[in-house]
Amino acid sequence: MAKNTVLTLLEMKEKKEKISQVTCYDYTTAQIAEKAGINTVLVGDSLGMTMQGYETTLPVSMDEMVIYGRSVKRGLKDAFLIVDMPFMSYQSSTKKAVESAGRLIKETGANAVKLEGGAIVSAKIKAITDAGIPVCAHIGMTPQSVNAFGGFKVQGKGEENAKRLLKDALEVEKAGAFMCVLECVPPKLASVITQKVKMVTIGIGAGSGCDGQVLVIQDLLGISDQTPKFVKKYANLSEIMTNALIQYDKDVKSGDFPNMEQTYSKSDCSDDFLKKLELL
Ligand code: KIV
């Protein structure tokens, strides 16, 4: 059993210990997140944008979530793995929602699933948790509704919207969610929600008052071209990787790579052997 579980994450909230979460989409990066001691890893459907180059998360399929999800799982040991339910894998019916959640758990080995929406998806959250599957909800700026929002915009501004977001948080918790991502929610509102609920809140663009934080790994590592204001870049991997590839390109072209250090000398064919084959 992984060290991070639903119980330990809820305990962390109680003890006011902050929870780290990062997105991950492949085995190698998952191993690094694990080594760094990240508490929870999210295979977000943001992979549609970060890994596949789409403009939104909408085209991502269940089959793709399974492939990325299980690759990440193989790189983890103690981190708690959450896999996103992609667009239209749960919206049309409660039955479909339970079946999709079950498939993600069975085929990826994830510990929980995440789905977007507040009160409107509470019946689905209840049915999934009734099936024994932990659910992370996601409210505020929910990227699968980008067309309805008219773009990626901060949610919860104004009294009515703030009240609706608080209601959403209370409803998803009542339905059984143990965790909820608050995306692009005004910081004060995110703090109030965090204090009012027992479930863990994970903020992204929602200030420091949440129980934990999540960032898209490409943003955090400085590989993305454009990053929103709420991102802190902890590295500039784009520059490091570009410089490494420029140098590799030069070395290949100049013949500096490979040199003797990168060459297997013991397994080289002897001149006698090559002569025998009439190759010398
Ligand atoms: O898909 C995703 O990566 C997400 C996070 C940004 C919370 O939903």
Short description:
The protein has about 280 residues and is of the alpha/beta class.
Describe the structure.
42% of the residues lie in helices and 14% in strands. The protein has 280 residues and is of the alpha/beta class. It has 2 domains: 6-235, TIM Barrel (Alpha-Beta Barrel); 240-279, no CATH class. It has an 8-stranded parallel barrel with strand order 1-2-3-4-5-6-7-8, surrounded by 6 helices. Helix 5 (94-108) crosses helix 6 (122-130), helix 6 runs parallel beside helix 8 and helix 8 packs parallel to helix 9. The relative contact order is 0.11. The structure holds 3-methyl-2-oxobutanoic acid. 3-methyl-2-oxobutanoic acid is lined by residues 23, 42, 44-46, 84, 138, 181, 183, 204, 214, 216.
Question: Can you give keywords for this protein?
Answer:
42% helix; alpha/beta; binds 3-methyl-2-oxobutanoic acid; 2 domains; TIM Barrel; single chain; 8-stranded parallel β-barrel; 280 residues
Structural category is: alpha/beta
Question: What is the CATH C-level name of the largest domain?
Answer: Alpha Beta
User: What small ligands are held by the chains?
Assistant: 3-methyl-2-oxobutanoic acid
Please state the overall shape, judged from the principal axes of the Cα atoms: elongated
CATH architecture of the largest domain: Alpha-Beta Barrel
| Average of the residue pLDDT scores | 95
The total strand number stands at: 8
